[in-house]
Structure formats: structure tokens, C-alpha cells
Amino acid sequence: MKGKRVLIINRGEIAIRVAKALNELGLVSVGVWTDNETEPPHLEYCQEWVHLKGSNNKETYLDIPKIMEIIDNYKIDGVHPGYGFLSENREFSEALSKKGVTFIGPNPTAVYKMGAKDISKQIAKEAGVPVVPGSTGEVETIEEAIKIGNEIGYPILLKAVAGGGGKGMRPCANEAEVKANFAAVQREALSSFGYAALLVEKYILNPHHIEVQILADKKGNVYHVFERECSIQRRHQKIIEEAPSPFIGTDEKVRQDICETAVRCAKAVNYDSAGTVEFIMGEDKKFYFLEMNTRIQVEHPITEEITGVDLVANMIKAAFNEPLDFKSQADIKIHGHAIELRICAEDPISMLPAPGKIVGFETTFPQGIRFDHCIFSGLTITPDFDPMIGKLIAKGFNREVALRKVRNALDGLLIDGIKTNIPLHKVILDEKNFKEGHYSTAYIGTVKPQDKVAKKENIESFMLKIAAIEQNQAGGSL
Prior knowledge:
Elements: E1 5-8, H1 12-24, E2 28-33, E3 48-51, H2 64-73, E4 78-80, H3 90-99, E5 102-103, H4 108-115, H5 117-126, H6 142-152, E6 156-164, E7 167-172, H7 175-193, E8 198-202, E9 208-216, E10 222-234, E11 237-243, H8 252-267, E12 274-281, E13 287-293, H9 300-307, H10 311-319, E14 337-344, E15 356-357, E16 360-363, E17 369-373, E18 380-381, E19 388-396, H11 399-411, E20 413-416, H12 422-430, H13 432-435, H14 443-447, H15 449-473
Parallel strand pairs: 1-2, 1-4, 2-3, 4-5
Antiparallel strand pairs: 6-7, 6-8, 9-10, 9-12, 10-11, 11-14, 12-13, 14-19, 15-18, 16-20, 17-19
Helix pairs in contact: 3-4, 6-7, 12-15
């Protein structure tokens, strides 16, 4: 495996993370730069740089023929897609396979079966995995969606077949909302994933989003690396993740059941890489299969922190048919608690993207903090990409220690020139329900921590105005 040339067809913090793993394993990391991102920070960690011509995602990270040309010209042996872009694209993985180039991800069949939510749901059923009630296949018309909604009961969720990252999903409380949202969800699905087909599922109120990390090799071994709690979300997109789940807590039977169910699901498609089986868990701790992400996840660091398993390095080793770092499920154990905060360039109140130029960046962290990021002073955050610019990760002996560490770390993270969701994170971490581990995916909508951010910002703005008036009256300047 050593000396093989691996193209990282991604950017940002995940490209940095992958490059570090490739370098550690003795492979040649090849990064790309584009016309609208000529000096991306991940190139600093790559041994070689390649120009991927184009000024938007369609012309660059999603252009398969152009990427294939680079593979030929630069004698590439393997490709790591990171997450997003082509990471779950069957056409891409099959094209690489035909060239004899290693796709650092699962086999094309697994990508296809688990990437299509209707097929993955059927596979889960056949494997004895509980699934959320809903359509058995693609729903093509509003009338069909309404019919299913009336059969399973409202509220329901309109959901893109090829979706992910919270896009192409809208809950509907009645027939009128189905009529109002159906075409809009189709358009979003087509725009984001190139495929407009939808599913209809029962919308479970106040659920927990629990996912199980899977790691498998090409010899038929499938392991779980325990679960993560990902219930703090806005617009169905995660912003805070924890491992292990505070909701499952010390209920080892539920933990064992959900983890073993995830393994069973992965084995049903002969899975052979890193991946995540996602579940929705009700207040009664009954869980249902949601989907499988056939790639590395944004939140993989917290699993690495509590188990010591390098998921990215082992994913690469599995792709090249090398033995993993452990020999049995018993080798993987939980030690302590970890939490991850997604640091995003967005307004902390509206939680909408807020692009701009970073003019200052400093970190003063307590011991034991990990910050996976792509930030530097002078970096311009554009609307072309996801607003996430970093991931702040803390591990502690227990949840209380981890929360204390990550809260202190927030005070030591300074990003000037743009709006970020750091103030929102501070409010959440200080809020009673979250501190006690009592929250669900409904947290943002019900507790409304963003309202406290607004009040705090109004008070700070008022105090600055008072200070300015007093300074002016004294004849000085601020």
C-alpha cells in the first residue's frame, strides 16, 4: 500500500483530515485547487497539488469526466471523496472500479443499495431491522403522498430518495401542507442531488437521532464502533454531536441492540468500509432504521476520541485490502465521553449562512481540545460551499468534564470579520435541559436558544452605545 498515489477529491477540513491519514500511512496525498478557491488551506497538508479547472461545484468536484482525466494524467491509484460531493455516487465509484482505481469507500453495489432510501429501507426490512412506517418505494404524485399520509397518519415527512445533510426534507401536518410542499421538495432534491424522487415516512415527534458507526473490511468482517447522539439540529442538519448517547445513557441493552442491528444491516449489503447506520429513536427507546451513509461522517472525531480507533486511516486500509488495527469487536471499547460543536459561518439567531472574510483568528484552548478546521486570517467564506468551517471537539472522563472543557474552549475561540454560531453554542451549553442531557431533535424549535442569543446581543449592543456616549461626553474616543 505504501507509495500509492491517492487523490483527495474534496476540500476544507475533511481534505486536511484525509491528507493527514494518507501521509501517516505512507501514501502520497494529492490535493486539488479550483478557480474559485486558488489557495485552499488543505493543500498545505498534501504532498502534491493538482488544478481542477472550474469555478463552481458542477464544473469541479461533481465533474466525473474531468476528475477521470486527472486520474489518468497523474497516475492516481486511489481516490478519497471525503463527505458530500461524489462520496455516495454510484456512477463515480463504478467508473473508478472499471479503471482499476481504488475507491476509498464501499463497493459500488453497497453505495447504490444504501444510497437509494427506498431500496435501503426494503433491505433493512428483509434483514429484520425495524423501519419507520411509510411508502415502500418512490412516491410520484401529490395524490399518492396524501393517500399514504391518510393511511399511516399525520404528521408525515416528504423526503428525497437520494437526499442527505438535511436537504430535500419537509414535515407536513396535513393534506394542505403536502400540497404546498411536494413540488418544492422535488425541486430541492433535483437541485441538490440530481434526482427528484421522493419518499413518504411517518414523522415521529420529539425523536432522538442516534447513529452507529460501522467499520468493515473486504474479508467479510463488520464491526460497530458504538453510537453517537446527533439530536441538536437546525433544518434537519446537525450542529452538536455526542458520543456515547446521553439518552441511551447506561442502558447497555439498548446500546447493544442498536449497535448489533446496525451491523446486521451493513452485512446485508456486504459492506466493506467506514459507514454510518442512522436510526430515529422514540421517547420509549424503540428505534427505527432511517438511512445508511456510505461514507465518513462529519462527526467521526468524537467516535475516534472515545474509542481510540482512527476511522479515516482504517477506512483507507480497508479500501486497499489491508488488515484493520483491531482483530475483534471485543477490542473496541468506550472510554469517557466526547462532544463536537460544528462551527459555522452563519447568523447565530436566524442560523442562515453568513459568508464574508475572516480578518482575525486565534485559539486559546484548555488541555485536551481537538479543532478540525480550515480557518486562517484572510480566508473568504463564500456561498459556494457548506457554511461549516470547523469542528470543536472535547473529550472528558465523563460527560460533565467534556462539557466543561468544550465550553471553556468556546471562550478561547476567536473568529473576527464574520458572523458565526459560537454565541448559539454558548447558550445551548449553558442551558439547563441540554446540560442534563434532556433534549431531542425538537430542541431548537421548542427551547429556542436563538432567542436568548438575540437578547444577549441586544444588551451588548445597548451597553456599547452607552459606552460610546459616555466616551464622547468625556471628549475621548473609543
